[in-house]
Each structure stands twice: as structure tokens, then as C-alpha cells.
């Protein structure tokens, strides 16, 4: 009974092992084929594809052999194919090692010769009607594996112990496997012997992949392979150590053994996430020695976000990636066109180097090139994913910087246009000094020359002073005190004309006289007050100019008022057409203060007419260009 149980366990080991082998080698072949398609066939790795084919033939063939009746006609032929495929697997290991180190293919040719001879011996045994597999062939493979291991150790004496340990261990496992196949051929063996004898192809595929993992999804395959192997070992271990003894005990207690198996089956399924995480850690940290890419990307993204120049971003990404991946060669450049319509953030493998495209919304794009990785390092799917994330983030940052720069340039142009418009308005204001006013002033001066020469001279000097101030005004802003001096010169000329009919009152606190307001913004108001409030009445009137700080909607306004005692009917009869001067004032206030300042006209029947300019106090500058501070009383 005990022997039967051992045989059943041995069969279980083989079924599990060959099934796992089929899954791993099929997954390897599918991933290589998929990667070669995505790269236009340039990345097909012949050795890895050959490995997947040989592994599939061996595992599928042996699974069929142990599952069908030995009397089946093609049973020996299937064994020939399976064992021949197994014999070529160590040859692929030797080939990959010599290809990796760019050595002369002496050992590779010897390995292919040994494998071919071993396959021939299996075939000869089948033709001669002898047992298959051929014991002579297995002995040849055993001594061949040991000899090839020794040869590789001599040829790769300077290679690191870690890298040598992988393929040395795999070849020696194969040698021991072949030796056990010779010793226990045709007899029932315990499950540990069956595990060593028949499942040597599993470490071989991992060794080949580790030695020559040139396709981009090798790390994903390694994680899945390790996860599957660990899961199988855990399930088998639970069955042998716990489930099977319990089923024997339960047989005497009338407990269905199927229930016990199902319980442990569910338990194994619950362990799968932990096994997957452990496999990922094993591949990333132990095997590939990767750093924490999540933390790396967070730090890189922070540096990208802090960059303020479109040229700094690709240079930063290139230098950081080159340092992280130990690339001796790194460069970036602007490109206007992309070949083959590469997708956003595409990372293209070209031999032992990569190209990554920072594809922004608008041209130019940026092409990053990395190569000459230290120790022959390859960038796998995880590294490629990080590179894609980096170039995508860089593309978005460059787009944001370009939008910001365009906005700044647009605002700068708008400011330039506003300044030019303000200069044009000042020019218009200088040219706008009412020709009628000049005509009246000159007429008054001519009259005074005969009646009062001294007064005529004073008036002429005031006119000259006024014109000089107007023509020499180039700044967009002037202090309120400076504007009052210009208005005083203007009023002196008008007083010579109207004499006692014109009375002027100015009430402006000294602290407000330092406030800056748009240049020549009060003169048109005073001119309109005289034109519509004084000249139209025989008795004349009074013009009042005052400045105050008043609250409006929760904020303080600097209010400058020009009032006259006229009825204002001519001024307010057409409120939408109040003259070029007033429209100019409204346009300038809108331009300088973006709608926060305003010009308001009021008429108080038989009392006065007012024109009020209101500017938010926090928009008003002092005489040195700083924000003014006014103490309210």
C-alpha cells in the first residue's frame, strides 16, 4: 500500500511539473512573439524562442508519455522527441552564455554536437527496438553537462560569482537529472527522485532567461513564472504534508476526503496574493536589484514640476534617467517630425539603447536617447513604464510652460499695445488743446496788449507755460499736485478772458497731492466745466476742484470732483455723446484700471454740475511708484 501511495505521489509530481512546464514555456513563447510583433520583428530572440519550443516539446511529450498506455504504438517515438528536446536545453544555456560574453563559439559548437549525438542515440534505440530513452544518451548528456560547465567556468573566469552561479547550478541540476534518469529508468521512484529527474527544465528556462533576458517583458515573465512555481510547490507541499495524512485519518471517521481537499484548495487560493507579492519582491529586489521606482518617479515628477523652462525639462529627464539606469551615453534634441507615427511617450528599443519621445501638444517634440548601460543592463517592462511615465509627465509640464509663456507674451504684447495706445491718447490730448481756446486766448492777449500790456504779457507767459507742460508730458501717470499746476496755468489764461465771471475753489489735502493719476485726465473736465458752466451764463460761475477718499462697496476710492455752478444742460443733454475729451477719459480709465475706476456725471438742477473720477485707493500709486497709504479721518 505504501509503494502505491509513493507511486501516486510521484505521478502527481510529474503531472504538476510537466503542466507547470507547459504553462511556463508557452507563456515565454507567447510573450516573445507578442514583443516581436510590437517591435516590427526586430526584437525576435531566436534563443529564447528556441527555448520555448524545446521546453514545450519536452513537457508536453512527457506528459503524454506518463498519461497514455505504454503499449500505444507511438509511445516510444514520443519519448524520443521529448528527450531529444530536453537534451538541447543545456546547449541553449551554453549558447546564451557565450553570446552574452561575445566569446568564440567553440563550446557552443561542442554543446550542439553533444545534443545532436544524444538525440541520434535516442532515435537509434527506437529504431533498434531498445528501451527509450537511451541510457547511453543520458550518460553522454550527464558527462557533457559537467564538461561544458567546467569549460564555461574557465572561459568566464572573470564573470561575477552571482552570474556564474545561475548557469552553473542549472547545468549541474541537468547533469544530476540525467544521472538519475539512468539509475532509475524503468522503475518506480519516490517523488523527490522524480522531481529531480524529470523537472530539470524548469530551472533551465529561468537560467536562460536570466542570462539573456533581452525582450522587454522578461521581468513580467519571471514574476509570473516564479509565482506559478511557488504556488505549485505550496499546493503540493500542503497536499503531501497535511491534506493527504488527514484524508487517511478521515477515512476512518466517515469524513469525505474530497471536503478536506477542497478546504486546502481554497486555502491555497487565499495564499496566492501573498505568493504573487513575494515573487514580485524576489524578482525586483533580489534578482534584478531594482530601486523603489514609485519613490523615484515621485521625486522626478517634483523636479519636473519645479522647472520653469521648456529646455530645462528634457535635459533634467535625460540626466536623471541616465543616472538611475547607469547609462554612459545620453542625449536629447528637438525634433519636428517623428518616424512611424510613434505614440505619446513611446519607448523604442534599438539594440542596447532606447529612444523615448516627449510628444507635446505642439511641435517641436523632444527625443531622448539612452545607451551603453553599465554591466550590459537591459531596460525591461518596469523600466520602460517608468520612462514612459517620465516623458508623459515632462510633456504635460512643457505644454503648461508653453501656455504660460504664451500667456505672458500675450500679456506683454497687450501691455505694449496699451502703452502705445496711452501714448497715442496723450498725443491726441496734446493735439486736442481746443483750437477755439487758443483762438480765444490769443484774442484776449491781443485785446490786453492795447488795454493792459503787463497783463497781456502775464497771460502770454501762462499760455507758454501751459503749452510747454502739455507738449513735454511723456509719462502715463503724474502726481495730482503736478496736474493741479497744469490746471492752474490753464485757469490763469481763462481768468484773463472771463475776469470776475470765473471763480475757482481748490480743496485737496496735502497727502492726496502725492497720489499718481493718469496724465492730463483733469484738464478736459475743467475745460468742459468752463465751456458748459461758465461761458453760457452772463453772470459766470464758480468751478470747484476737490479730492477725497470715500468708501464704496467695502473699499476706499480716491474721488476727484470737478464741479461748476452752471446748469449743465448742454453737457448732460446727450449723455452718450459727451465729447471726445470725456470719451478719452473713460477709455483711459478702463485701460489703466480694467473697469475698477469710473467717470460719473451728475446734474443738480439750479445748483451745480459735477464730473467725478473714482479710482480704487489700492490701485493708486504714490509719487515713487509704491502703493499709497492714506490715513482716513
Query: What would the CATH topology of the largest domain be?
Result: Rhopdopsin 7-helix transmembrane proteins
Per CATH, the architecture of the largest domain is Up-down Bundle
Strand percentage: 5-15%
What is the count of distinct domains?
4
Description:
This protein has helices at residues 2-38, 46-67, 75-100, 106-127, 135-155, 161-183, 191-198, 201-211, 218-251, 257-287, 293-306, 312-324, 381-432, 435-451, 453-472, 480-498, 523-534, 569-572, 580-593, and strands spanning 327-335, 347-350, 353-358, 365-373, 477-479, 502-507, 516-518, 541-552, 555-564, 598-604, 608-616. The chain folds into four domains: 2-214, Up-down Bundle (Rhopdopsin 7-helix transmembrane proteins), CATH 1.20.1070; 217-289, no CATH class; 293-405, 2-Layer Sandwich (Beta-Lactamase), CATH 3.30.450; 462-619, Histidine kinase-like ATPase, C-terminal domain (Heat Shock Protein 90). The longest helix is centred in the middle third of the chain and has 52 residues, at 381-432. The chain has 19 helices and eleven strands. Strands 6-8-9-11-10 form a five-stranded mixed beta sheet. The protein has a four-stranded antiparallel beta sheet with strand order 1-4-3-2, with helices on one face. The chain has 633 residues and is α+β, with helices and mostly antiparallel strands.
Amino acid at each position: 500500500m505504501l509503494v502505491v501511495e509513493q507511486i501516486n505521489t510521484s505521478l502527481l509530481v510529474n503531472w504538476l511539473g510537466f503542466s507547470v512546464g507547459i504553462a511556463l514555456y508557452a507563456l515565454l513563447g507567447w510573450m516573445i512573439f507578442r514583443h516581436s510583433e510590437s517591435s516590427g520583428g526586430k526584437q525576435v530572440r531566436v534563443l529564447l524562442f528556441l527555448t520555448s519550443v524545446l521546453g514545450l516539446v519536452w513537457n508536453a511529450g512527457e506528459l503524454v508519455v506518463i498519461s497514455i498506455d505504454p503499449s500505444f504504438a507511438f509511445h516510444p517515438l514520443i519519448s524520443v522527441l521529448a528527450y531529444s528536446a530536453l537534451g538541447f536545453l543545456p546547449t541553449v544555456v551554453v549558447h546564451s552564455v557565450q553570446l552574452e560574453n561575445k566569446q568564440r563559439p567553440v563550446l557552443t559548437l561542442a554543446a550542439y554536437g553533444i545534443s545532436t549525438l544524444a538525440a541520434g542515440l535516442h532515435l537509434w534505440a527506437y529504431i533498434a527496438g531498445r528501451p527509450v530513452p537511451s541510457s547511453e544518451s543520458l550518460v553522454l548528456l550527464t558527462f557533457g553537462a559537467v564538461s561544458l560547465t567546467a569549460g564555461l567556468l574557465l572561459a568566464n573566469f572573470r564573470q561575477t560569482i552571482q552570474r556564474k552561479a545561475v548557469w552553473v547550478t542549472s547545468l549541474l541540476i541537468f547533469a544530476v537529472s540525467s544521472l538519475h534518469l539512468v539509475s532509475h529508468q524503468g522503475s518506480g521512484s519516490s517523488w523527490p527522485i522524480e522531481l529531480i529527474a524529470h523537472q530539470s527544465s524548469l530551472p533551465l528556462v529561468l537560467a536562460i532567461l536570466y542570462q539573456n533576458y533581452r525582450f522587454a517583458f522578461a521581468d513580467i515573465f519571471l514574476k509570473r513564472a516564479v509565482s506559478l512555481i511557488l504556488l505549485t510547490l505550496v499546493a503540493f507541499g500542503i497536499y503531501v504534508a497535511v491534506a493527504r495524512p488527514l484524508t487517511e485519518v478521515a477515512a476512518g471517521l466517515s469524513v469525505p476526503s474530497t471536503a478536506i481537499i477542497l478546504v486546502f484548495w481554497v486555502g491555497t487560493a487565499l495564499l496566492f496574493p501573498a505568493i504573487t507579492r513575494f515573487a514580485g519582491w524576489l524578482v525586483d529586489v533580489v534578482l534584478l536589484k531594482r530601486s523603489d521606482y514609485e519613490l523615484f518617479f515621485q521625486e522626478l515628477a517634483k523636479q519636473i514640476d519645479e522647472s520653469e523652462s521648456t529646455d530645462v525639462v528634457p535635459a533634467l529627464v535625460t540626466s536623471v534617467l541616465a543616472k538611475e539606469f547607469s547609462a554612459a551615453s545620453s542625449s536629447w534634441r528637438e525634433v519636428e517630425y517623428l518616424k512611424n507615427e510613434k505614440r505619446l511617450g513611446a519607448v523604442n528599443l534599438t539594440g542596447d539603447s532606447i529612444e523615448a519621445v516627449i510628444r507635446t501638444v505642439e511641435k517641436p517634440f523632444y527625443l531622448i536617447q539612452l545607451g551603453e548601460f553599465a554591466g550590459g543592463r537591459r531596460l525591461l517592462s518596469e523600466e520602460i513604464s517608468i520612462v514612459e511615465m517620465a516623458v508623459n509627465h515632462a510633456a504635460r509640464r512643457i505644454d503648461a510652460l508653453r501656455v504660460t509663456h504664451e500667456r505672458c507674451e500675450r500679456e506683454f504684447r497687450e501691455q505694449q499695445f496699451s502703452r502705445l495706445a496711452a501714448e497715442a491718447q496723450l498725443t491726441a490730448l496734446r493735439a486736442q488743446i481746443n483750437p477755439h481756446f487758443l483762438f480765444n486766448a490769443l484774442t484776449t492777449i491781443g485785446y490786453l496788449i492795447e488795454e493792459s500790456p503787463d497783463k497781456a504779457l502775464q497771460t502770454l507767459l501762462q499760455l507758454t507755460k501751459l503749452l510747454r507742460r502739455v507738449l513735454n508730458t511723456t509719462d502715463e501717470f503724474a502726481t495730482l499736485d503736478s496736474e493741479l499746476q497744469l490746471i492752474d496755468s490753464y485757469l490763469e489764461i481763462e481768468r484773463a478772458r472771463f475776469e470776475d465771471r470765473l471763480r475757482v475753489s481748490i480743496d485737496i489735502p496735502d497727502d492726496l497731492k502725492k497720489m499718481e493719476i493718469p496724465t492730463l485726465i483733469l484738464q478736459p473736465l475743467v475745460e468742459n466745466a468752463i465751456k458748459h458752466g461758465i461761458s453760457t451764463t452772463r453772470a459766470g460761475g464758480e468751478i470747484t476742484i476737490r479730492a477725497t477718499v470715500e468708501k464704496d462697496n467695502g473699499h476706499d476710492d480716491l474721488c476727484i470732483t470737478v464741479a461748476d455752478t452752471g446748469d449743465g444742460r448742454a453737457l448732460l443733454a446727450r449723455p452718450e455723446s459727451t465729447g471726445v475729451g470725456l470719451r478719452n477719459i473713460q477709455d483711459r480709465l478702463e485701460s489703466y484700471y480694467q473697469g475698477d475706476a469710473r467717470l460719473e456725471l451728475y446734474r443738480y438742477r439750479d445748483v451745480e454740475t459735477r464730473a467725478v473720477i473714482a479710482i480704487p485707493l489700492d490701485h493708486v500709486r504714490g509719487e515713487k511708484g509704491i502703493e499709497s497709504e492714506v490715513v482716513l479721518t
